[in-house]
Design a protein that fits this description.
Helices cover 71% and strands 2% of the residues. The protein has 285 residues and is mainly alpha-helical. The chain starts with 9 loop residues before the first helix and ends with a helix.
Length: 285
């Protein structure tokens, strides 16, 4: 029998549950010890998520007027791109790709990120509530392996798509040549349009709901731990223990992903604004 103490890593504890899939007592012990780690993992991302909740941060007001933007677009259409191709511009730290396709990706991922994240958190919360209120479910709940594998695969794919735009060997790089991120001046005008679309995606994302649901999960998990410690729950099937542990892990991973997406959205919008201000000062003011 594999006994996991409170000092073991979260990932090893999850593996322990898999290995103990046929041992009720081993699963019970591992599950009881893994709950505090689950709560810690989930709660660790709440401060970051709160940054993106409505009214928690104020977006910098652009100093560029609409007339200046139109003037800049008109001026750039007549300028020689080669002359300014080596101009250094600000980019998100570690960014090393084409900004247009990156903005398009962030727009495309925005709706799915929030929808899938909220879905897994709420589904897991419901699963925990059933676990607490129905002793039979603690022994008979069906495996949710396929569900967690599917949702995890989607999240991982999105994260990998984003990673492709960043150079892991230069994580602090914050400036690139203009020609590295744009192929022509016309791309900058397209970036202005995409920036507005991304801002709308950001506006529609309700991080307050995500934070509220995550806090709810943390509270229920803490209650589960309390009832386990008090002996109110003394038997759990290995399948149920594994389900709840894997669910908590995926909730934590989605919280991490949503926090990352929120941060990268802000930096993408900020990048377009910075470049616009830089070229407005260069050509218009």
């Amino acid at each position: 029998m594999i006994i996991v103490d409170e000092g073991i890593s979260y990932e090893l504890a999850l593996k322990g549950l898999v290995l103990e899939s046929f041992g009720t007592q081993g699963s019970f012990t591992i599950f009881r010890n893994i709950i505090p780690k689950s709560v810690e993992l989930i709660q660790s991302f709440i401060p970051d998520l709160n940054r993106f909740a409505p009214n928690s941060n104020s977006e910098p007001v652009s100093q560029i007027t609409n007339s200046e933007r139109r003037a800049l677009v008109g001026t750039l259409s007549k300028a020689n791109f080669i002359d300014y191709s080596s101009t250094l511009v600000s980019v998100p730290e570690g960014f090393n790709g084409k900004l247009l396709s990156y903005l398009e990706l962030m727009i495309d991922l925005g709706e799915d990120a929030m929808k899938n994240g909220l879905q897994i958190i709420q589904d897991y919360s419901t699963e925990l509530s059933k676990f607490l209120s129905n002793s039979d479910i603690r022994k008979t709940m069906q495996s949710h392996d396929d569900y967690y594998k599917t949702i995890s695969k989607i999240r991982a794919k999105h994260q990998e798509d984003i990673k492709k735009y960043f150079d892991k060997n230069k994580p602090t790089l914050s400036r690139q040549k203009f020609s590295t991120i744009f192929d022509r001046f016309g791309d900058l005008e397209k970036a202005f349009v995409l920036e507005q679309k991304l801002k709308e995606v950001k506006r529609l994302q309700n991080y307050s709901v995500i934070v509220s649901e995550i806090q709810k999960v943390s509270e229920i998990l803490t209650l589960v731990k309390s009832r386990l410690d008090n002996g109110d729950i003394d038997e759990i099937s290995p399948v149920v223990a594994k389900n709840l542990a894997e669910g908590a892990h995926e909730v934590g991973r989605y919280a991490e992903y949503l926090a990352m997406y929120g941060y990268l959205t802000e930096t993408a919008i900020g990048t377009v604004k910075n470049i616009e201000e830089q070229f407005t000062k260069l050509f218009i003011r």
